[in-house]
């Protein structure tokens, strides 16, 4: 898995004995500054972008393959023992309302380099069926996090945050809430050269600017009813700069961005997950102590923990979900995401590139 944060690759080795999920090994490989910047540039129309897109797609396949080698070495497993790699790829466009989404990573090259079958392009079929193509992880959350009597919500705080609503009375639902870490990452990177605000410490040392928060919260996406999904196409540095007056202290902007990420999540829960009592956080944002504390204050009626307490590490859950999605594809199982993505019908998601 490699998400909108553009931080790197989360690789997991997962087994599914008797339909249980077993995490066997993990490996993280950071992208580094050059690849991150090249990917960021591809989010905008640019000269020679088709060639560059293919070039970076090949580079990603090599990185995914290296991550696979490291992962298998760690686990003492050889490629022949692995059924498939579920490879999400790196999103550079997500425009479901215009009928497309684009994840880079040359799956054919990854299959060639790794000697393992690859399942990729998980989102396109859902969009073809009228859905948002995102989020897809609610299908997996439904399988591993649902409780028969307790109304739970899982919140994955990646670049974008998305939630899964698991009410005992209803089928699974879920949607993207809004910016997660992405804008905070962009702002601290611009001002301090850091890739992210560790534990939210910089944000916690600033003051929320009420007028700026108000302008952030006017964003129509935040108030739109689900199904909805988002990405860097909307929540970019340009989006942020367009809302600044120019005289704000950078640290206060960071505090206000953290407040926005929390409000995007807590407003979504209060509006669309009424009665939820247990919240389980995952994704890199679950490490952001300032964010977690603030969420607790915004949602006093909920018990907020991380998925760690359910035996699912916050850093690996999304990657495990894509291993499971790959398994569903290999078994030709349809996924019913109608109540999540708004697709017209259940679909088999993903394309297979044989070993
Ligand atoms: N200790 C931490 N404190 C604050 N933020 C963190 C911490 N660790 C990770 N993060 C955030 O998590 C992000 C990565 O999260 P991830 O779940 O991989 O998102 P994505 O799926 O979008 O790639 C980082 O870019 C950073 O913003
Ligand atoms: Mg990531």
Automatic annotation (TrEMBL):
Q: What class of enzyme is it?
A: transferase
Q: Which reaction does it catalyse?
A: 1,6-anhydro-N-acetyl-beta-muramate + ATP + H2O = N-acetyl-D-muramate 6-phosphate + ADP + H(+)
Name any Gene Ontology BP term. peptidoglycan turnover
Binding-site residues for ATP, renumbered to this chain: 3-10
Look up the EC number in the record and give it.
2.7.1.170
Q: Which GO terms describe its molecular function?
A: ATP binding; kinase activity; phosphotransferase activity, alcohol group as acceptor
Q: Which Pfam families does the record match to this protein?
A: AnmK
Task: Name the pathway.
Answer: Amino-sugar metabolism; 1,6-anhydro-N-acetylmuramate degradation; Cell wall biogenesis; peptidoglycan recycling
Keywords per UniProt: ATP-binding, Carbohydrate metabolism, Kinase, Nucleotide-binding, Transferase
Checking PANTHER family in the record gives: ANHYDRO-N-ACETYLMURAMIC ACID KINASE
Q: Which family does it belong to?
A: Belongs to the anhydro-N-acetylmuramic acid kinase family.
What is this protein for, i.e. what is its function?
Catalyzes the specific phosphorylation of 1,6-anhydro-N-acetylmuramic acid (anhMurNAc) with the simultaneous cleavage of the 1,6-anhydro ring, generating MurNAc-6-P. Is required for the utilization of anhMurNAc either imported from the medium or derived from its own cell wall murein, and thus plays a role in cell wall recycling.
User: What's the name of the protein?
Assistant: Anhydro-N-acetylmuramic acid kinase
Species assigned in the record: Candidatus Nitrotoga fabula
């Amino acid at each position: 898995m490699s998400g909108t944060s553009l931080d790197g690759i989360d690789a997991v080795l997962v087994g599914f004995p008797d339909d249980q999920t077993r995490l066997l090994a993990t490996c993280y490989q950071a992208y580094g500054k050059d690849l991150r910047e090249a990917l960021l540039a591809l989010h905008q129309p640019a000269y020679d972008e088709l060639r560059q897109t293919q070039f970076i797609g090949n580079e990603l396949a090599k990185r995914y393959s290296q991550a696979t080698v490291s992962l298998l070495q760690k686990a003492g497993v050889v490629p022949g023992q692995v059924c498939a790699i579920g490879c999400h790829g790196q999103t550079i466009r997500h425009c479901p309302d215009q009928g497309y989404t684009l994840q880079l990573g040359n799956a054919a090259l990854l299959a060639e380099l790794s000697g393992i079958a690859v399942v990729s392009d998980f989102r396109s079929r859902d969009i073809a069926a009228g859905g948002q193509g995102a989020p897809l992880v609610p299908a997996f959350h439904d399988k591993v996090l649902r409780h028969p009597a307790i109304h739970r919500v899982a919140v994955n705080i990646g670049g974008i945050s998305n939630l899964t609503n698991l009410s005992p009375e209803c089928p699974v639902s879920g949607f993207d809430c809004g910016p997660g870490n992405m804008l905070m990452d962009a702002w601290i990177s611009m001002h301090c050269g850091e890739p992210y605000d560790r534990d939210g410490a910089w944000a916690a040392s600033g003051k929320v600017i009420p007028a700026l928060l108000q302008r952030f919260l006017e964003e129509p996406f935040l108030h739109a009813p689900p199904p909805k999904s988002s990405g860097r196409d909307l929540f970019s540095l340009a989006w942020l700069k367009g809302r600044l007056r120019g005289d704000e202290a950078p640290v206060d902007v960071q505090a206000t961005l953290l407040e926005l990420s929390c409000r995007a999540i807590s407003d979504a829960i209060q509006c669309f997950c009424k009665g939820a009592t247990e919240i389980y956080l995952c994704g890199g944002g679950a490490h952001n102590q300032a964010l977690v504390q603030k969420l607790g204050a915004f949602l006093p009626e909920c018990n907020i923990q991380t998925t760690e307490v359910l035996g699912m590490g916050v850093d690996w859950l999304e990657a495990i979900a894509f291993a499971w999605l790959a398994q569903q594809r290999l078994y030709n199982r349809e996924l019913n995401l109608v109540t999540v993505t708004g697709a017209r019908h259940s679909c088999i998601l993903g394309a297979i590139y044989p070993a």
